[in-house]
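Q:
Just now I want nothing more than another pair of eyes on a protein record. Here is the record:
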Amino acid sequence: MPELPEFAAPSDAALHLWLVRPGTDGPDLPPETTPAAAAWAKAQGFAGKAGQLCLLPTPDGGIAGALYGIGPQSKGRDRYLLAKAAESLPKGDWYLANRPEGLDLATGALGWLFAQYRFTRYRKAEVPAARLVCPEGVDAQRVLALAAGEYLARDLINTPASDMGPEDLERAARDLAARHGATVTVIAGDDLLAQNFPMIHAVGRAGAQAPRLIDLRFPGEGPMLTLVGKGVCFDTGGLDIKPPSSMGLMKKDMGGAANVLGLSETLARLGLTAGMRLRVLIPAVENAIAGNAFRPGDILTSRKGLTVEVNNTDAEGRLVLGDALALADEEAPALLISMATLTGAARVALGPDLPPFFCDDDSVAQSVHDAGRDHADPVWRLPFWEPYESMIEPGIADLDNAPGGGFAGAITAALFLRRFTEKAGNYIHFDIYGWQPSAAPGRPKGGAGQGMRAILNALPEILK
C-alpha cells in the first residue's frame, strides 16, 4: 500500500487561505482584507483567476496567509480546484478561511490530497509540503478513503511489468484482502484448463509467469456486487505484435484490475462492504510471444461454451474478461461491472480523460453519469448498439474477437463482453484509459483512477 496523505490537525497556528473569485472591478477580496493586503495583492497583479496565488506578508517578512484565485463560478476546466494550491503553497498547515458559494469543498479537499501523490518506488520525489486542515462539514474519513483507493490504483499502474506481473498482481490483491478480512482463491497455470477457464489460459500461457484468475470475496450481507478487472500485466500484442510506439505504455494494461482493487479499498475503508456481498475477479496474464502463444486464426471455446475466432491476438483483453464474466454471471449478481483498458477506439472517440461506459438500463446509466459529474470523475455513456451485433459474428465461430472494418471498436468490444452476461441484474462495462498523459493539478503524469468515484457514489441508488 502506498504511503497515504493526511490532513493537518486544526490549530490556531494554521495559516489562513482565502478563496477569491474575480469581480467586476478587480478580485472579490474577503471583507477581512486589510488595505495593506489589498494594495499588496494589486501590486502582485492578483485578479482571482483560477490557480492564481498571492502570499500575504507579515510586517517582519513572514507569511500571514494567502489569497488563492478560483476563477468565475461558471468555469470548470480545473477538475480539482485546490490541487494547484497544494502544489504551490509553501510548507505549513493551511486553513480555508472562507467558503465561496457553489464550491464543493469535499472535492476540493480530495484534489488537495491527490496533488500530494508521488510514485516513489524507484526514486525519491519531493512531495508538496503544504497540508490542509480538513474544511468544516467535510467528512475527512471519506475523503481519505477515496484518496487511498486512488493512490493504490496509481501505484499499481505505475509499477512496470518487471515488478507487476501476474504473481505480483496476485500479491497486491492478497495484501488488500488481508487488510480488510477478505478471502482469496487463485486458479493458476494448467489448473485454469482443468477448471474451465480456457481463454484466460490461452492468452497467458506464453508469459514468463503463469496466468491466473484471482477471486476475492469480502465479508458482508446484502445485494451482490461483482467487479471484474482486466489484469493484462503487459501486452506485447502477442503474435500480432505491437510496434514499439504502441508497446511503451503497456504496463498500464492492467489498469482495469488496478481500478477495481482501488475501488474495493475505498469501499472497505468506508465500511460499505458490510452491506453488500462484494466479489472481485481479476484474470491476470501477460500477453507474450513464445512457441506456445495463441495464434491468429485459432478458435477458442470459452467457459460459457461460446466459440471465439481469434482474428487478432492483440484483442486479448476481451478474451480473458469473457471467461471471468461468465464465472461472475453464474451467481447472478445484482450488479456486475467490468473495467478494462480495452480499446483505442474509446480514446479516439472521447480522449484519455473521459472514459465511456456501457449499460442497458437508462436509470442506472443516468445514476452513474450524474455521480461522475458531481464527484469530479467524469464518464460518458456509449450504447450497446445492437445493429452492430453482426460485426462480431464471423461465421466460422460464435464470436470474432477483432472484427475488421475499423468502425465502432469500443462498441463491438462491449457487445462481445455482454455475450458473457445473462443472469446479472445489471451489467456495466467501463472502457478506461487508466493513464494521465500530461501533468495537471491533482493528476500527475502516470497511472490514474477512472470511474471509481462514479461507481461508488452511484451504488446507493443502483443497489437500493
